[in-house]
Amino acid sequence: MTAMPVATPIAFTEEQLATVSYNADGLVPAIVQEHGTGQVLTLAWMNADTLRESLETGRTVFWSRSRQERWRKGDTSGDRQFIREAFFDCDGDALLFVVEQEGQGACHTGNRSCFYRPFGPD
Amino acid sequence: MTAMPVATPIAFTEEQLATVSYNADGLVPAIVQEHGTGQVLTLAWMNADTLRESLETGRTVFWSRSRQERWRKGDTSGDRQFIREAFFDCDGDALLFVVEQEGQGACHTGNRSCFYRPFGPD
After folding, report:
1. Which end of chain A is flanked by fewer CB atoms within 10 Å, N or C?
2. How far is A114 from chain B (nearest CA, A)?
3. Are strands A69-72 and A81-88 parallel, antiparallel or unpaired?
């Protein structure tokens, strides 16, 4: 039996948050990688509010570009992501979240990772 | 002594390439992950031409948004990336390249990964 994952806030400083730069739509790409396996699960987008909420709550919260709304991973699917580590890159224009992935995975298709299709012959 | 890495083309179909969608600037984000360690090295951007060149040559080739020019990783730094696997995501709007990283790493700062700064207290 696996213990229920627990959401743990990620500490941050206002100076670190101010280092993050956003595109013209106010968004920054966020890579989500699985803790332990290192599998890259998905690439999603955050704005300043959902980045702050993600760190404060220890859950990944994104901005849906198609629906133009805040979207907390797992609220619909049940497959929550509990943040264990969070990084910002050298230029401050990309983020990396290392998460404990709940349930069957990160992808709406039912695959564990959104990157389930390799280039190559069928 | 480590054997010199060899560039190996990645097979693809035109149908797969046509699945990739680009933003208003004609770009798609490309996650680069290290083969073997699973470390996420960088997030960079490709256009249709540099994606095709990357697959055909087996080396990562990006589009520099700041310089507005094609940029083949390693041509300046010597730290080339040899592609071992390549994936496109469920929506076709993000790419993942698993690479053999040459030299000291992927980041222009000298760090192995561009994601060397964790959120948290200094």
Report:
1. N
2. 5
3. unpaired
Rounded Cα–Cα distance for residues A27 and B46 (Å): 18
Residues in chain A: 122
Taking all residues of chain B, what is their mean pLDDT, rounded to a whole number?
A: 95
Helix, strand and coil content of chain A, in percent to the nearest 5, comes to 15, 35, 55
Flag whether residue B48 sits within 8 Å of chain A, measured between CB atoms. Answer: no
For residue A118, pLDDT beyond 90: yes
Written as one letter, the residue type at A73 is K
Note the pLDDT tens digit of each residue in B34-81.
999 999 999 999 999 999 999 999 999 999 999 999 999 999 989 999
C-alpha A69/C-alpha A63 separation (Å) is 6
- pLDDT confidence bin for A2, thresholds 50/70/90: low
Question: Do residues A10 and B119 make contact, with C-beta atoms less than 8 angstroms apart?
Answer: yes
Give this prediction's pTM. 0.96
Q: CA separation (Å) from A39 to A96, B37, B64, B90?
A: 12, 10, 26, 15
Task: For residue B115, list chain A residues with Cβ-Cβ distance below 8 A.
Answer: 87-89, 94, 96
In chain B, which residue's Cα lies nearest the Cα of A33?
Answer: B40
